[in-house]
């Protein structure tokens, strides 16, 4: 393969997204990138906080970002309710990019709105600010584009469009400005980013090398190295239909990122290509699985082969767990083990490749507390990639530095903070719980409810009187009911002659 891009998310900002009016998170290498243009620290960050306080909002925003960078349409159904209907919703992300001996920094801003009539997500405006590292980051360039063609009447009116830039004087002569109107119409119809789509990226091949490396680096990152595992995968696991296996594999000529469905409900048919991918993924998973769950391995067993309607080979398979010489269908494993199997291939890649960024919502779901802590401890010490996760299990406080933890607050205008004031002799877990109960931070972390009030509310909820229901029958219908009751009593007496 040609020289790869190393991309690292160093900051996120959310504006009017779900229950976050404003929130900012700076990741572990933000300061080292700003000062030295280097990745110096292991990059594990966990989000903690009460239910409904903005943890999943960040995960959803990152999932939207992945769609954009990968040049894909943002699906309407999962996200339309997360975007503000009254104010603009904006996601801002700052990246560090390495390519060969060159270092870049990029800030990408996107403004979104939901079109409830067409049931589409529109990318109303985009802005890309980028720097190439010299002695400092002082050389700044920027591109901004607001797409008017989501309104079809604008196409007929032939409204002129152009990139706006404050720092890039040579932009008007650059190849990306040619036929920009056609590109804008195409992106509005396809609901794609003007920056990150295959037409734009191919046009950059002969353009400004700094802009090319920044945009190609971010596009490769979104397509190949950036994976967001949302909580809806837990529903697939719990339904016992499929086990989503999040896979990243690469060799000298190919990089692949997929979520492969491991059949759980007995036998299932998959394509020959998917079978080969799953077989290779299972081989890697088993090596790591035995270190986490002793004596456990999984087997993907082919039952038979048959062609599909197009004549392509399909393989009918079963998935078994093998433990201490006993085997059974993997569908009967616990939720925690299935969760580990689902994530393990990507955790292996995170451990080995610095290009990987893995985002997991509710990482702790179903996983034994001690085991979760051990996995996080190993990753924090040795993983080369970036892990962003949400969790409710406080074991992470004992295995990570307090700087690795971001806490959500009760203030929607300042949703994310790091804890301050922890002394060396403080137990991190106890320090967090004490902070929740007695405060001491810039923002409140928990909207503490009076436990007696909760008990009182529970009692009241049970004591509510059910409304009386009165039924009114006609005289004819009442006579029929009475006649049926008499006949039923007579039949019962005939069948039970010895009853008292």
Automatic annotation (TrEMBL):
InterPro entries found in the cross-reference section: P-loop_NTPase (IPR027417)
Transmembrane segments: none
Domain of life where this protein originates: Bacteria
MF GO annotations: ATP binding; ATP hydrolysis activity
SUPFAM superfamilies from the UniProt entry: P-loop containing nucleoside triphosphate hydrolases
PANTHER family: ATPASE AAA-TYPE CORE DOMAIN-CONTAINING PROTEIN (PTHR40396:SF1), ATPASE-LIKE PROTEIN (PTHR40396)
Protein name from the UniProt record: AAA family ATPase
Organism this protein belongs to: Sporofaciens musculi
């Amino acid at each position: 393969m040609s020289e790869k891009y190393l991309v690292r998310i160093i900051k996120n900002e959310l504006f009017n997204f779900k229950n976050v009016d404003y929130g900012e998170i700076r990741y572990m290498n933000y300061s080292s990138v700003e000062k030295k243009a280097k990745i110096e620290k292991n990059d594990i960050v966990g989000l903690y906080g009460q239910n409904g306080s903005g943890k999943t909002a960040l995960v959803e925003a990152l999932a939207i970002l992945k769609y954009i960078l990968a040049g894909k349409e943002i699906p309407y159904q999962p996200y339309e309710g997360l975007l503000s209907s009254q104010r603009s919703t904006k996601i801002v992300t700052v990246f560090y990019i390495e390519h060969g001996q060159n270092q870049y920094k990029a800030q990408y801003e996107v403004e979104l709105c939901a079109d409830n009539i067409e049931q589409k997500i529109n990318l109303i405006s985009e802005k890309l600010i980028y720097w190439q590292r010299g002695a400092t980051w002082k050389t700044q360039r920027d591109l901004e584009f607001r797409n008017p063609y989501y309104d079809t009447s604008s196409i007929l009116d032939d409204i002129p469009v152009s990139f706006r830039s404050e720092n890039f004087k040579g932009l008007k002569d650059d190849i990306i400005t040619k036929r920009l109107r056609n590109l804008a119409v195409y992106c509005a119809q396809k609901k794609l980013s003007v920056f990150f789509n295959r037409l734009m990226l191919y046009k950059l091949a002969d353009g400004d090398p700094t802009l090319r490396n920044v945009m190609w680096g971010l596009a490769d990152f979104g397509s190949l190295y950036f994976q967001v595992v949302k909580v809806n995968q837990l529903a697939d696991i719990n339904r016992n239909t499929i086990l989503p296996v999040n896979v990243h594999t690469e060799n000298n000529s190919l990089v692949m990122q997929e979520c492969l469905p491991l059949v759980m409900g007995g036998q299932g048919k998959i394509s020959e290509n998917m079978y080969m991918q799953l077989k290779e993924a299972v081989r890697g998973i088993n090596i790591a699985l035995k270190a986490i769950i002793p004596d456990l391995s999984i087997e993907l067993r082919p039952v038979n082969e048959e062609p599909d309607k197009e004549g392509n080979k399909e393989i009918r398979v079963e998935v078994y767990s093998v433990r201490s010489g006993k085997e059974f269908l993997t569908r009967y494993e616990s939720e925690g083990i299935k969760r580990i199997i689902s994530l393990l291939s990507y955790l292996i890649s995170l451990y080995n490749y610095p290009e990987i960024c893995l985002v997991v919502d509710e990482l702790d779901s179903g996983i034994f507390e001690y085991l979760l802590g051990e996995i996080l401890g190993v990753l924090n010490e040795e993983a080369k990639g970036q892990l962003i996760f949400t969790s409710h299990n406080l074991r992470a406080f004992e295995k990570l530095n307090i700087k690795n933890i971001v806490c959500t607050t009760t203030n929607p205008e300042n949703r994310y903070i790091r804890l301050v004031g922890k002394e060396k002799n403080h137990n991190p877990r106890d320090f967090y719980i004490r902070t929740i109960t007695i405060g001491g931070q810039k923002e409140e972390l928990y909207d503490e409810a009076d436990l007696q009030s909760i008990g009182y509310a529970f009692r009241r909820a049970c004591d509510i009187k059910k409304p009386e229901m009165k039924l009114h029958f006609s005289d004819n219908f009442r006579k029929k009911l009475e006649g049926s009751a008499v006949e039923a009593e007579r039949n019962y007496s005939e069948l039970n002659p010895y009853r008292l």
